[in-house]
Amino acid sequence: MNPTNASPDPTSTDPTSPDRTGTDPTSPDPTSPDRTSTGPGRRTALVVGASGITGSALVEQLTADGWEVLALSRRPATSPGVRGIAADLRDPDSLRAALAAEAPTHVFFTAWQRMPTEAENIAVNGGMVRDLLAALAHAPVQHAALVTGLKHYLGPFEAYGEGTMPDTPFHEEEPRQPTPNFYYAQEDELVAAAGRQGFTWSVHRSHTVIGHAVGNAMNIGLTLAVQATLAKELGLPFVFPGSETQWNGLTDMTDAGVLAEQMIWASTDPAGADEPFNIVNGDVFRWRWMWPRLAAHLEVPADRVVGFAGEPRPLEQQMAAYESEWPAIAAKHGLVEPDISRLASWWHTDADLGRDLEVVTDMGKSRAAGFTGYRRTEQAFADLFARYRADRLIP
Ligand SMILES: NC(=O)c1ccc[n+]([C@@H]2O[C@H](COP(=O)([O-])OP(=O)(O)OC[C@H]3O[C@@H](n4cnc5c(N)ncnc54)[C@H](OP(=O)(O)O)[C@@H]3O)[C@@H](O)[C@H]2O)c1
Asked: Where is composition skewed (Low complexity) in this entry (predicted)?
Protein backbone atom coordinates (compact mmCIF):
# COMPACT_ATOMS: atom_id res chain seq x y z
CA MET A 1 0.00 0.00 0.00
CA ASN A 2 1.04 3.52 -0.68
CA PRO A 3 1.42 5.82 2.35
CA THR A 4 -1.71 7.95 2.13
CA ASN A 5 -1.53 10.43 -0.73
CA ALA A 6 2.08 9.56 -1.49
CA SER A 7 3.23 9.23 -5.03
CA PRO A 8 4.30 7.50 -7.19
CA ASP A 9 2.22 4.38 -6.85
CA PRO A 10 4.38 1.54 -5.48
CA THR A 11 1.62 -0.98 -6.06
CA SER A 12 2.54 -1.10 -9.75
CA THR A 13 4.79 -4.03 -8.87
CA ASP A 14 3.70 -6.89 -6.63
CA PRO A 15 5.28 -5.89 -3.33
CA THR A 16 5.70 -9.45 -2.15
CA SER A 17 7.10 -10.91 -5.33
CA PRO A 18 10.46 -12.63 -4.88
CA ASP A 19 12.11 -10.51 -7.56
CA ARG A 20 11.36 -7.28 -5.64
CA THR A 21 12.58 -8.49 -2.30
CA GLY A 22 15.27 -10.83 -3.46
CA THR A 23 13.79 -13.37 -1.03
CA ASP A 24 11.43 -16.23 -1.51
CA PRO A 25 8.45 -15.83 0.81
CA THR A 26 7.83 -19.55 0.71
CA SER A 27 11.28 -20.32 2.08
CA PRO A 28 11.76 -21.27 5.75
CA ASP A 29 11.81 -18.71 8.55
CA PRO A 30 13.40 -15.61 6.99
CA THR A 31 14.95 -14.59 10.30
CA SER A 32 16.75 -17.88 10.81
CA PRO A 33 20.45 -17.41 11.55
CA ASP A 34 21.62 -19.27 8.42
CA ARG A 35 20.30 -16.36 6.34
CA THR A 36 22.35 -13.83 8.28
CA SER A 37 25.64 -15.63 8.55
CA THR A 38 27.43 -16.35 5.30
CA GLY A 39 26.69 -17.13 1.69
CA PRO A 40 24.22 -15.63 -0.77
CA GLY A 41 21.48 -15.27 1.88
CA ARG A 42 23.69 -13.08 4.08
CA ARG A 43 22.08 -9.89 5.27
CA THR A 44 23.95 -6.65 5.71
CA ALA A 45 22.18 -3.76 7.44
CA LEU A 46 23.07 -0.12 6.84
CA VAL A 47 21.82 1.86 9.83
CA VAL A 48 21.69 5.53 8.88
CA GLY A 49 21.89 7.76 11.97
CA ALA A 50 23.37 4.88 13.93
CA SER A 51 24.41 6.92 16.98
CA GLY A 52 20.92 8.35 17.56
CA ILE A 53 18.25 7.25 20.01
CA THR A 54 16.55 5.06 17.39
CA GLY A 55 19.60 4.07 15.37
CA SER A 56 21.60 2.82 18.36
CA ALA A 57 18.73 0.52 19.42
CA LEU A 58 18.69 -0.90 15.89
CA VAL A 59 22.44 -1.47 15.93
CA GLU A 60 22.11 -3.36 19.22
CA GLN A 61 19.21 -5.51 18.04
CA LEU A 62 20.68 -6.29 14.62
CA THR A 63 24.04 -7.20 16.17
CA ALA A 64 22.33 -9.45 18.71
CA ASP A 65 20.46 -11.12 15.83
CA GLY A 66 23.74 -11.83 14.03
CA TRP A 67 23.52 -9.34 11.17
CA GLU A 68 26.54 -7.67 9.65
CA VAL A 69 26.01 -4.00 10.55
CA LEU A 70 27.24 -0.83 8.85
CA ALA A 71 26.70 2.20 11.10
CA LEU A 72 26.57 5.55 9.30
CA SER A 73 26.71 9.00 10.90
CA ARG A 74 29.00 12.01 10.78
CA ARG A 75 30.84 10.80 13.90
CA PRO A 76 30.59 7.02 13.58
CA ALA A 77 31.64 4.37 16.08
CA THR A 78 32.97 0.90 15.38
CA SER A 79 32.37 -1.95 17.82
CA PRO A 80 32.39 -5.76 17.62
CA GLY A 81 30.20 -6.74 14.67
CA VAL A 82 29.65 -3.10 13.67
CA ARG A 83 31.65 -1.10 11.11
CA GLY A 84 31.32 2.66 11.39
CA ILE A 85 30.97 4.68 8.17
CA ALA A 86 31.57 8.43 8.30
CA ALA A 87 29.47 10.44 5.87
CA ASP A 88 27.48 13.65 5.80
CA LEU A 89 23.94 13.07 4.53
CA ARG A 90 23.82 16.70 3.41
CA ASP A 91 26.76 16.16 1.10
CA PRO A 92 25.92 13.79 -1.81
CA ASP A 93 29.60 13.52 -2.81
CA SER A 94 30.52 12.39 0.69
CA LEU A 95 27.73 9.79 0.57
CA ARG A 96 28.74 8.44 -2.84
CA ALA A 97 32.36 8.13 -1.77
CA ALA A 98 31.55 6.49 1.55
CA LEU A 99 29.09 3.96 0.10
CA ALA A 100 30.64 3.15 -3.31
CA ALA A 101 32.17 -0.11 -2.09
CA GLU A 102 29.35 -1.12 0.28
CA ALA A 103 26.66 -3.69 -0.49
CA PRO A 104 23.90 -3.45 2.13
CA THR A 105 20.84 -5.63 1.62
CA HIS A 106 18.70 -3.67 4.12
CA VAL A 107 18.62 0.04 4.93
CA PHE A 108 17.30 1.47 8.21
CA PHE A 109 16.97 5.26 7.92
CA THR A 110 16.85 6.95 11.35
CA ALA A 111 18.74 10.23 10.81
CA TRP A 112 17.30 13.71 10.97
CA GLN A 113 18.41 17.27 11.52
CA ARG A 114 16.19 19.87 13.16
CA MET A 115 15.93 23.04 11.07
CA PRO A 116 14.41 26.40 12.04
CA THR A 117 11.42 26.13 9.69
CA GLU A 118 9.39 23.25 8.24
CA ALA A 119 10.28 24.39 4.71
CA GLU A 120 13.96 23.86 5.61
CA ASN A 121 13.12 20.57 7.37
CA ILE A 122 11.53 19.36 4.16
CA ALA A 123 14.46 20.42 1.99
CA VAL A 124 17.12 19.00 4.32
CA ASN A 125 15.47 15.85 5.68
CA GLY A 126 13.72 14.90 2.44
CA GLY A 127 17.01 15.49 0.63
CA MET A 128 18.92 13.25 3.04
CA VAL A 129 16.62 10.29 2.27
CA ARG A 130 16.83 10.97 -1.47
CA ASP A 131 20.60 11.33 -1.60
CA LEU A 132 21.30 8.36 0.67
CA LEU A 133 19.17 6.01 -1.43
CA ALA A 134 20.60 7.40 -4.68
CA ALA A 135 24.10 6.65 -3.39
CA LEU A 136 23.02 3.00 -3.03
CA ALA A 137 21.82 2.57 -6.63
CA HIS A 138 24.59 0.01 -7.16
CA ALA A 139 23.80 -2.00 -4.02
CA PRO A 140 21.65 -5.16 -3.68
CA VAL A 141 19.12 -3.39 -1.43
CA GLN A 142 16.06 -5.53 -0.75
CA HIS A 143 14.23 -3.28 1.71
CA ALA A 144 14.51 0.22 3.19
CA ALA A 145 12.75 1.12 6.45
CA LEU A 146 12.22 4.75 7.52
CA VAL A 147 11.40 6.09 11.00
CA THR A 148 9.04 9.03 11.16
CA GLY A 149 6.60 9.88 13.95
CA LEU A 150 3.17 10.96 15.09
CA LYS A 151 3.71 14.45 13.70
CA HIS A 152 2.46 12.66 10.59
CA TYR A 153 -1.00 13.03 12.21
CA LEU A 154 -0.39 16.07 14.44
CA GLY A 155 1.39 18.36 12.00
CA PRO A 156 4.96 19.74 12.20
CA PHE A 157 6.37 21.57 15.24
CA GLU A 158 5.50 24.98 13.79
CA ALA A 159 1.83 23.99 13.24
CA TYR A 160 1.46 21.37 15.97
CA GLY A 161 -2.17 20.29 16.45
CA GLU A 162 -3.42 23.29 14.48
CA GLY A 163 -5.29 21.48 11.76
CA THR A 164 -8.33 19.26 12.18
CA MET A 165 -6.92 16.39 14.22
CA PRO A 166 -7.82 12.86 13.25
CA ASP A 167 -9.81 11.00 15.88
CA THR A 168 -7.81 9.03 18.42
CA PRO A 169 -6.47 6.43 18.36
CA PHE A 170 -4.55 7.44 15.22
CA HIS A 171 -4.79 4.95 12.35
CA GLU A 172 -2.34 4.63 9.47
CA GLU A 173 -4.93 5.22 6.77
CA GLU A 174 -5.72 8.77 7.94
CA PRO A 175 -5.32 11.29 5.10
CA ARG A 176 -2.34 13.59 5.32
CA GLN A 177 -2.73 16.95 7.03
CA PRO A 178 -2.79 19.87 4.55
CA THR A 179 0.26 21.41 6.29
CA PRO A 180 3.66 20.77 4.66
CA ASN A 181 5.57 18.18 6.70
CA PHE A 182 9.07 16.72 6.34
CA TYR A 183 7.76 13.24 7.14
CA TYR A 184 5.61 13.36 3.99
CA ALA A 185 8.62 14.46 1.95
CA GLN A 186 10.71 11.60 3.38
CA GLU A 187 7.97 9.04 2.67
CA ASP A 188 7.65 10.28 -0.91
CA GLU A 189 11.42 10.07 -1.48
CA LEU A 190 11.48 6.54 -0.02
CA VAL A 191 8.60 5.25 -2.13
CA ALA A 192 9.96 6.88 -5.29
CA ALA A 193 13.42 5.32 -4.80
CA ALA A 194 11.84 1.93 -4.00
CA GLY A 195 9.99 2.04 -7.31
CA ARG A 196 13.09 3.13 -9.28
CA GLN A 197 15.58 0.82 -7.59
CA GLY A 198 13.35 -2.21 -7.04
CA PHE A 199 13.28 -2.69 -3.27
CA THR A 200 10.41 -2.86 -0.76
CA TRP A 201 9.89 -0.17 1.86
CA SER A 202 8.25 0.42 5.22
CA VAL A 203 7.53 3.52 7.32
CA HIS A 204 7.45 3.41 11.14
CA ARG A 205 5.44 6.17 12.83
CA SER A 206 6.77 6.38 16.35
CA HIS A 207 5.41 8.22 19.36
CA THR A 208 7.89 9.83 21.82
CA VAL A 209 10.91 7.54 22.06
CA ILE A 210 12.25 6.09 25.32
CA GLY A 211 15.84 5.24 24.46
CA HIS A 212 19.55 5.63 24.95
CA ALA A 213 21.58 8.42 23.33
CA VAL A 214 23.75 11.35 24.38
CA GLY A 215 23.90 14.68 22.60
CA ASN A 216 20.86 14.00 20.44
CA ALA A 217 17.97 16.33 19.69
CA MET A 218 14.98 14.71 21.46
CA ASN A 219 15.41 12.50 24.52
CA ILE A 220 12.61 12.56 27.10
CA GLY A 221 14.09 9.83 29.32
CA LEU A 222 17.43 11.54 29.87
CA THR A 223 15.75 14.95 30.14
CA LEU A 224 13.51 13.78 33.00
CA ALA A 225 16.46 12.02 34.67
CA VAL A 226 18.45 15.28 34.62
CA GLN A 227 15.44 17.23 35.93
CA ALA A 228 15.14 14.73 38.80
CA THR A 229 18.87 14.94 39.56
CA LEU A 230 18.70 18.74 39.79
CA ALA A 231 15.63 18.46 42.02
CA LYS A 232 17.35 16.01 44.39
CA GLU A 233 20.67 17.86 44.51
CA LEU A 234 19.29 21.38 44.85
CA GLY A 235 16.20 20.65 46.97
CA LEU A 236 13.79 21.67 44.21
CA PRO A 237 10.30 20.31 43.58
CA PHE A 238 10.02 17.77 40.74
CA VAL A 239 7.30 19.56 38.79
CA PHE A 240 5.35 18.04 35.90
CA PRO A 241 6.00 20.56 33.11
CA GLY A 242 3.07 19.79 30.84
CA SER A 243 -0.58 20.49 30.19
CA GLU A 244 -3.72 19.49 32.06
CA THR A 245 -4.74 17.39 29.06
CA GLN A 246 -1.53 15.36 29.23
CA TRP A 247 -1.66 15.07 33.04
CA ASN A 248 -5.19 13.65 33.05
CA GLY A 249 -5.65 12.06 29.64
CA LEU A 250 -4.63 8.71 28.21
CA THR A 251 -1.49 8.47 26.13
CA ASP A 252 1.22 6.04 25.00
CA MET A 253 4.95 5.99 24.15
CA THR A 254 7.51 4.04 22.11
CA ASP A 255 10.49 2.15 23.50
CA ALA A 256 13.42 2.32 21.06
CA GLY A 257 13.82 -1.46 21.36
CA VAL A 258 10.28 -2.22 20.23
CA LEU A 259 10.68 0.27 17.38
CA ALA A 260 13.84 -1.54 16.28
CA GLU A 261 12.05 -4.90 16.48
CA GLN A 262 9.20 -3.64 14.29
CA MET A 263 11.61 -2.20 11.71
CA ILE A 264 13.50 -5.49 11.50
CA TRP A 265 10.24 -7.45 11.27
CA ALA A 266 8.93 -5.27 8.43
CA SER A 267 12.27 -5.53 6.63
CA THR A 268 12.34 -9.31 6.68
CA ASP A 269 8.69 -10.45 6.61
CA PRO A 270 6.75 -10.03 3.34
CA ALA A 271 3.71 -8.98 5.42
CA GLY A 272 5.63 -5.83 6.38
CA ALA A 273 6.52 -4.77 2.82
CA ASP A 274 5.31 -1.52 1.28
CA GLU A 275 3.27 -0.33 4.26
CA PRO A 276 3.34 2.45 6.85
CA PHE A 277 2.95 1.25 10.46
CA ASN A 278 2.35 2.98 13.77
CA ILE A 279 4.63 1.83 16.57
CA VAL A 280 3.97 2.27 20.29
CA ASN A 281 4.59 0.05 23.31
CA GLY A 282 1.09 -1.41 23.45
CA ASP A 283 0.03 -0.08 26.86
CA VAL A 284 -1.66 3.23 27.70
CA PHE A 285 -1.28 5.39 30.80
CA ARG A 286 -2.01 8.82 32.29
CA TRP A 287 0.86 11.10 33.27
CA ARG A 288 -0.80 11.69 36.66
CA TRP A 289 -0.24 7.94 37.23
CA MET A 290 3.20 7.76 35.62
CA TRP A 291 4.82 10.91 37.11
CA PRO A 292 5.09 9.74 40.75
CA ARG A 293 6.26 6.32 39.56
CA LEU A 294 9.05 7.85 37.46
CA ALA A 295 9.97 10.04 40.44
CA ALA A 296 10.30 6.91 42.59
CA HIS A 297 12.50 5.20 39.96
CA LEU A 298 14.65 8.36 39.95
CA GLU A 299 14.74 8.38 43.78
CA VAL A 300 13.07 11.77 44.15
CA PRO A 301 11.56 12.07 47.67
CA ALA A 302 7.75 11.78 47.46
CA ASP A 303 7.23 15.17 49.11
CA ARG A 304 9.04 16.88 46.20
CA VAL A 305 6.76 15.39 43.51
CA VAL A 306 4.38 18.01 42.10
CA GLY A 307 1.70 17.44 39.47
CA PHE A 308 -0.17 19.77 37.15
CA ALA A 309 -1.58 22.79 38.96
CA GLY A 310 -3.25 25.60 37.07
CA GLU A 311 -0.99 25.91 34.04
CA PRO A 312 1.97 24.22 32.29
CA ARG A 313 5.40 25.00 33.78
CA PRO A 314 7.84 24.38 30.91
CA LEU A 315 11.26 22.99 31.79
CA GLU A 316 13.03 25.56 29.62
CA GLN A 317 11.88 28.17 32.17
CA GLN A 318 11.89 25.98 35.29
CA MET A 319 15.48 24.82 34.75
CA ALA A 320 17.17 27.90 33.24
CA ALA A 321 18.45 29.18 36.59
CA TYR A 322 19.88 25.79 37.63
CA GLU A 323 21.70 24.58 34.51
CA SER A 324 24.94 26.20 35.68
CA GLU A 325 24.93 23.86 38.72
CA TRP A 326 25.33 20.76 36.56
CA PRO A 327 29.15 20.73 36.19
CA ALA A 328 29.55 20.73 40.00
CA ILE A 329 26.94 17.95 40.36
CA ALA A 330 28.75 15.95 37.67
CA ALA A 331 32.09 16.42 39.44
CA LYS A 332 30.62 15.50 42.85
CA HIS A 333 29.22 12.20 41.53
CA GLY A 334 31.96 11.38 39.01
CA LEU A 335 29.62 11.74 36.03
CA VAL A 336 31.04 11.57 32.51
CA GLU A 337 29.13 14.47 30.86
CA PRO A 338 29.52 17.90 32.44
CA ASP A 339 27.69 19.65 29.57
CA ILE A 340 23.98 19.63 30.46
CA SER A 341 23.01 20.69 26.92
CA ARG A 342 24.12 17.25 25.67
CA LEU A 343 21.80 15.54 28.15
CA ALA A 344 18.60 17.55 28.51
CA SER A 345 16.36 18.50 25.58
CA TRP A 346 13.96 20.67 27.61
CA TRP A 347 12.29 22.13 24.50
CA HIS A 348 11.23 18.72 23.23
CA THR A 349 9.87 17.41 26.54
CA ASP A 350 8.00 20.72 26.95
CA ALA A 351 6.46 20.35 23.49
CA ASP A 352 5.60 16.72 24.10
CA LEU A 353 4.06 17.00 27.56
CA GLY A 354 2.58 20.42 26.83
CA ARG A 355 0.25 19.21 24.09
CA ASP A 356 -3.30 20.25 24.73
CA LEU A 357 -4.73 17.29 22.86
CA GLU A 358 -5.11 13.59 23.36
CA VAL A 359 -2.49 11.47 21.60
CA VAL A 360 -3.19 7.73 21.49
CA THR A 361 -2.03 5.41 18.76
CA ASP A 362 -3.60 2.33 17.20
CA MET A 363 -1.37 -0.75 16.87
CA GLY A 364 -3.89 -3.04 15.19
CA LYS A 365 -2.42 -2.90 11.71
CA SER A 366 1.01 -4.38 12.38
CA ARG A 367 -0.40 -6.80 14.97
CA ALA A 368 -2.79 -8.16 12.37
CA ALA A 369 0.15 -8.47 9.96
CA GLY A 370 2.11 -10.52 12.50
CA PHE A 371 4.17 -8.08 14.62
CA THR A 372 3.44 -8.66 18.31
CA GLY A 373 6.27 -6.75 20.06
CA TYR A 374 5.23 -5.17 23.37
CA ARG A 375 6.76 -3.16 26.22
CA ARG A 376 5.46 -1.89 29.56
CA THR A 377 6.19 1.82 29.47
CA GLU A 378 7.02 2.20 33.18
CA GLN A 379 9.48 -0.69 32.93
CA ALA A 380 11.04 0.80 29.78
CA PHE A 381 11.73 4.01 31.72
CA ALA A 382 13.06 2.09 34.75
CA ASP A 383 15.42 0.04 32.58
CA LEU A 384 16.61 3.16 30.79
CA PHE A 385 17.33 5.04 34.04
CA ALA A 386 19.33 2.03 35.28
CA ARG A 387 21.36 2.10 32.08
CA TYR A 388 22.06 5.84 32.30
CA ARG A 389 23.14 5.29 35.92
CA ALA A 390 25.47 2.45 34.90
CA ASP A 391 26.94 4.72 32.20
CA ARG A 392 27.58 7.41 34.86
CA LEU A 393 25.42 9.94 33.03
CA ILE A 394 23.21 10.41 36.12
CA PRO A 395 24.06 9.61 39.76
N1 LIG B 1 13.40 11.07 19.64
C2 LIG B 1 12.07 10.99 19.70
O3 LIG B 1 11.46 11.05 20.79
C4 LIG B 1 11.27 10.81 18.43
C5 LIG B 1 9.88 10.63 18.56
C6 LIG B 1 9.11 10.44 17.41
C7 LIG B 1 9.70 10.49 16.17
N8 LIG B 1 11.05 10.69 16.07
C9 LIG B 1 11.63 10.75 14.72
O10 LIG B 1 12.53 9.70 14.55
C11 LIG B 1 13.50 10.07 13.54
C12 LIG B 1 14.88 9.77 14.11
O13 LIG B 1 15.07 10.63 15.22
P14 LIG B 1 15.99 10.28 16.48
O15 LIG B 1 15.39 11.01 17.64
O16 LIG B 1 16.22 8.81 16.53
O17 LIG B 1 17.34 11.02 16.02
P18 LIG B 1 18.64 11.41 16.87
O19 LIG B 1 18.65 10.64 18.16
O20 LIG B 1 18.70 12.90 16.95
O21 LIG B 1 19.83 10.87 15.97
C22 LIG B 1 20.11 11.40 14.70
C23 LIG B 1 21.17 10.56 14.04
O24 LIG B 1 21.38 11.08 12.73
C25 LIG B 1 22.77 11.35 12.54
N26 LIG B 1 22.86 12.51 11.65
C27 LIG B 1 22.27 13.72 11.80
N28 LIG B 1 22.61 14.51 10.78
C29 LIG B 1 23.42 13.81 9.96
C30 LIG B 1 24.11 14.09 8.76
N31 LIG B 1 24.04 15.30 8.17
N32 LIG B 1 24.86 13.12 8.21
C33 LIG B 1 24.97 11.90 8.79
N34 LIG B 1 24.34 11.58 9.93
C35 LIG B 1 23.58 12.51 10.51
C36 LIG B 1 23.29 11.63 13.96
O37 LIG B 1 24.69 11.38 14.11
P38 LIG B 1 25.83 12.52 13.88
O39 LIG B 1 25.34 13.75 14.61
O40 LIG B 1 27.08 11.90 14.44
O41 LIG B 1 25.91 12.70 12.43
C42 LIG B 1 22.50 10.59 14.75
O43 LIG B 1 23.14 9.33 14.61
C44 LIG B 1 13.24 11.55 13.24
O45 LIG B 1 12.47 11.69 12.08
C46 LIG B 1 12.42 12.01 14.44
O47 LIG B 1 11.59 13.11 14.11
C48 LIG B 1 11.84 10.83 17.17
From this structure: 7-26
